[in-house]
Each structure stands twice: as structure tokens, then as C-alpha cells.
Design brief:
- This protein is mainly alpha-helical and 167 residues long.
- It has one domain.
- Helix content is 73%, strand content 0%.
- Helix 2 (16-42) packs antiparallel against helix 3.
- It is elongated, with a radius of gyration of 18 Å.
- The relative contact order is 0.21.
């Protein structure tokens, strides 16, 4: 293998995909948790599923909350493994966090809010400003994650390394 970039070890390059995947899973879990805690529990703006009774909405919130913690904990186990192997690459991992959280929020704001209509951000208000801010924040995180991802890919190319997709 060619001389590695000073800031990138061979093991980090080998596990670049796992760094990205762990970060993305953590980003999804974190965004889902914050959505659940802030908009569902603290503000009471909506439930995960608002097309039925309040009881059904609360049950759906419970499943949503469980999903968010499952994703977060799984990502942290992956992160612990990366750290144990001395393979954690913070910038690559953070690109995954940004892509995961932004992707989750954009999916939520477009597919769940508009296409499936299972809930809105808020009811009995002019929804457009809420939708615009929600999706703008999501796109900002996606842009930030993409920028970090491209920078880490450039580091990989400069180091003469290619991530192993099986990792």
C-alpha cells in the first residue's frame, strides 16, 4: 500500500465504511430520539401516528422511542468496536452522523408528513413555515455530512487507500 496520509492510519482506512455506517445509525437514532422527546413528549405537538386514537398514538410513540434507542445503542456498540480496534475516524464518523440525522429528518418531513400524512409537525397553525424550517435544517445536515464525506474520501484517495466494503 502507498504511504498513508499522516492523519489517516491504515486501520482507519480499512474501516472507513464502518465509521460511516456507525455514524449514520447514531445520527438516525439521535434525530429520532430528539424528535420523540421534544415534539412528542415535551411539546405534545404530535404523535408518531396521528391517524387514529390518542391511545394508538401513544403506543406508536413507544415503538418509535424504542427504535430510536435501539439504533443509538447499536451505533454505540459499533463505535466501541471501532475504538477498540484503534479504527475510529472522527471526521468520517461525524459525516455519517450528519447524513443519518439529516436523512432521517428529511425522510420524516417529506415522506411521513407529506406523502403518507401519518402526522404533521404541528396542528392548528400555518404549517408551511414549520415544514420549511424542518426540511431546511435537514438539508443543512445533509450538506454538512456530504461535505465531510467528500473530504474523507479525498483523504482516502490521497493516502492510496480504498475502504473495504465488507467491514
Amino acid at each position: 500500500m502507498a504511504r498513508m496520509d499522516k492523519t489517516l492510519s491504515q486501520i482507519q482506512a480499512k474501516f472507513a465504511g464502518r465509521n460511516l455506517g456507525s455514524g449514520a445509525l447514531f445520527g438516525v437514532g439521535l434525530a429520532a430520539f430528539l424528535d420523540e422527546a421534544v415534539f412528542h413528549q415535551l411539546l405534545h405537538w404530535h404523535h408518531f401516528y396521528d391517524l387514529s386514537t390518542t391511545a394508538a398514538g401513544l403506543v406508536s410513540d413507544g415503538f418509535f422511542h424504542a427504535f430510536s434507542w435501539f439504533a443509538t445503542v447499536a451505533a454505540l456498540f459499533m463505535l466501541a468496536d471501532l475504538r477498540r480496534r484503534a479504527a475510529w475516524w472522527r471526521k468520517r464518523w461525524m459525516s455519517g452522523v450528519m447524513l443519518g440525522s439529516g436523512g432521517f429528518n428529511f425522510y420524516d418531513g417529506t415522506i411521513q408528513h407529506k406523502l403518507m400524512r401519518i402526522h404533521q409537525i404541528r396542528y392548528e397553525v400555518e404549517i408551511l413555515p414549520y415544514d420549511l424550517v424542518w426540511n431546511a435544517i435537514a438539508l443543512f445536515f445533509i450538506l454538512l455530512g456530504t461535505t465531510l464525506f467528500l473530504k474523507t474520501n479525498k483523504q482516502l484517495r490521497r493516502a492510496g487507500a480504498a475502504p473495504d466494503a465488507r467491514q
